[in-house]
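Attaching the record inline, Q. Sequence:
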Amino acid sequence: MDAGANDNAVVRGPKEFDLSTTTSAALTKRAWDALAARDFEAVAEYTGKCRELFEAEARLQQGSLAAIIPAIEREKILVLSALNDVAACYFIAGQAHELQGDTAAAVSLYRDLAKLFPYAQCWDTKGWFWRPAVEGRTRMFRLEFEAAAR
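Structure, as predicted:
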């Protein structure tokens, strides 16, 4: 092989992530986009950063609630952005682990989600609120059932 054959090779450093805007909504959106692209490293980065920056506030918001806010009270739900986005990030991270075949990590995240953030609600662009804790619990039970059936 010619000694100069690799002179034009690009040496890449560590992967860069877009942390120019670190609102919970921006981080959650990037995490969803990374999940859709199956960029699991980016999913971990964005969900981890969202949890790092907003989980304390999410826990406070969760603690201030005694029940699910009815969907008709949309503005009251949307103002709880830390709660809703952190819960979504737990769900997204769980899905990423599922897709990678790491069932134990996915189950653990779904279990924590259901325990910590049962009143979180996220807006679906199709026109309704969905509850990450409910979806996570459903996925957790399915994964545990499948594991037991093996």
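The chain has one domain: 24-149. Residues 40-63 form the longest helix (24 residues).

More tomorrow.
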